[in-house]
Amino acid sequence: MNVKNLLHASAIGIATILVACTEVAQEAEYETSTEATTTSPAAPAAPPAPAAPAMSVQEHRSSLYGPAPQASLMSQPAYWDEGRESYPQFGDNPVKQVAEAPVSTFSIDVDTASYARMRRFLNDGVMPPADAVRTEELVNYFTYDYERPESREQPFRADIALFDAPWVAGRQLLRIGMKGFDIPAGKRPPANLVFLIDTSGSMRSPDKLPLVQRSLRMLADAMDDDDRIALVAYAGAAGVVLKPTKGGDKRKILNAIEGLHASGSTAGGAGIQLAYGLALENFRDGAVNRVILATDGDFNVGISDPSRLEKLIAEKRKSGVYLSVLGFGEGNLQDSTMQSLTQAGNGNASYIDTFQEARKVLVDEMGGTLFPIADDVKVQVEFNPAYVAEYRLIGYETRMLRREDFNNDRVDAGEVGSGHTVTALYEIVSPQSASRRVDPLRYGDDSPKRKAGVENGELAWLRIRYKLPGEQQSRLIEQPVAVAARTGFAEAPADARFAAAVAGFGQLLRGSDTIGEFTWNDVLGIASDARGEDSFGYRAEFTRLVRTASSLDRLAAAQ
Predict the structure, then answer these.
(1) Alpha-carbon distance 196 to 341, whole Å?
(2) Which residue among 52, 70, 307, 510 is buried most deeply as judged by most CB within 10 Å?
(3) Counting beta carbons within 10 angstroms of the beta carbon of residue 184, is it exposed (0 to 12), middle (13 to 18) or buried (19 or more)?
(4) Residue 413 — very low, low, confident or very high, per pLDDT cuts 50/70/90?
(5) Where are the alpha helices (DSSP H) in 193-302?
(6) Which helix (H) or strand (E) holds 104?
(7) Which contacts qualify for 61-65: CB closer than 8 Å, 24 or more apart?
(8) How many angstroms separate the first and last alpha carbons of the chain?
(9) Which is higher by pLDDT, 410 or 447?
(10) 466 vs 376: CA distance, rounded Å
């Protein structure tokens, strides 16, 4: 280990000890004080006294990730190299005035990669870069108890909750939840999978190719004789490691997985072409035909231009072969490329940092990962200016669509897999609220539709478009959102309160200036109170990550 890495490892070790000590003290403080958390806007929590003059989230983020970060325990880790690990840059969604822009349109997003990457950074003792945090992916990492649809013909229904926001008095949250139709295990179509494995030299570390191999062995164990799996490796030159093989032939599959080894440069483009060719050559009607790319995200040989790769994959999806991407490891992750490829390929992106995460993605939630029940799913909300003056969509910044895109079936959007839950949160402000940020127009709209909406008590009108897999024409679901549905925050469903806590956490990590005096302690209190059933411990892990982020924030402020 060279001197630089030795010093970095020592710094991280010391920082980890300091974080752990601070977490213990904070947890004791939280458990002994009932005033440390906030569960309603009427009773805001007083943040704990910092050890040094308070530093805003924006100030401490700037000190951590600015162009000239401080040389301290809280500086970027060795793998945070902006030239090698990159994330798409985006700003938070702005506040919209209903009188000027009453309609909001976006593509759904069921990816969860951002949550796992956020966890990686926090576990390593640093805050994640703001652009690595996509709030909707944090919220959608968790499943929620929404009403299940009864038919694949209408594969989901909207579950609405309207309640007071926990961060600023006078604002409300509109939670839109959807639960995808869950195909019974005995009725799931066979899977025809081609795994495209990055075996370049950069994949040598234990959290890369060795973790890929362990993940594949676990998936192979869950496949049956009607499924097919093939392996393509790429490193310098691409090659078929395993031709399409019945899922029941475990020994042959496991031997092929064991034979993978990392060496050479990366020929991502050539590998993708070979994998699609294999998938099309063995295409099976009625099966789920999918290429799954497992990589650290480094495309440096072959078709390295993301726009060319995206065009290739968008063309291939017309054949019925989808693409999903599994990201592994640190140092080379090209998140922007992963996002563009999966969106073009009608797939989803996951980041696997642990064996437990591999199990979550490939076994526990295999239906949502592999088996689509709806394509090109778009959501559109029209707000009634009589009841809503302002709104802000929390997250989905990289998934926004134009109003006219909603009815255009040629515009691509996100996919929903079997049993997937999707959640979106709007922050809204009523015309009478003192929390309005923009003065109202002097002359408002007085259209017949607005009058009817007032008479019917419609706060908003929700539209959802989707295509059944293999269909070219979209279908439409519509329903009103009633003003009468509004409740206080404490009376909102537990799942809605937990989602709000996660959304607040994401906004804190991004350094948002739209959530008032909302604190890490507020997130912790709400998430703990609304945790509910937690069979796999994901929500308990979330509260631990909140404590870690709070500790890191305090340490940064104390410097």
Answers:
(1) 14
(2) 510
(3) exposed
(4) very high
(5) 209-222, 250-258, 268-281
(6) strand 103-107
(7) 61/127, 61/130, 61/511, 63/556, 63/559, 64/126, 64/127, 64/556, 65/127, 65/129, 65/130
(8) 28
(9) 410
(10) 6
Q: Token pair for residue 13?
A: 């070790």
Residue 38 has pLDDT above 80, yes or no: no
Type of residue found at 127: M
496, with CB counted inside 10 A (0-12, 13-18, 19+), is buried
Structure tokens at 131: 């652009």
pLDDT digit string, tens, across residues 452-495: 777 889 999 999 999 998 899 999 999 999 999 999 999 999 99
Strand pairing class (322-328; 349-352): parallel
Where b means 16+ CB within 10 Å and e means fewer, 358-370 reads bbbbbebbbbbbb
One-letter amino acid for residue 21 of the chain: C
What's the CA gap between 5 and 8, in Å, rounded?
Answer: 5
Phi, psi of 310 (to 5 degrees): -60, -40
Please give the structure tokens belonging to residue 498. Answer: 């937990």
Dihedral of the CA atoms 379, 518, 36, 170 (nearest 10)?
A: -70
The C-alpha torsion from 294 through 299 and 305 to 309, rounded to 10°, is -20
* Residue 417 near residue 361 (C-beta atoms within 8 A): no
Residue 264: DSSP 8-state: S
Q: How far is CA 299 from the centre of its chain?
A: 23
Q: How many angstroms separate the CA atoms of 105 and 120, rounded? A: 32
Q: How far apart are CA 535 and CA 539, in angstroms?
A: 9
Beta-bridge partners for 233? 197, 239
Q: In whole angstroms, give the CA distance from residue 327 to residue 298.
A: 10
Could you please report the per-residue DSSP string of 57-101?
A: HHHHHHHHHSSS--SSTTS--TT--TTTSB----PPPPPEETTT-
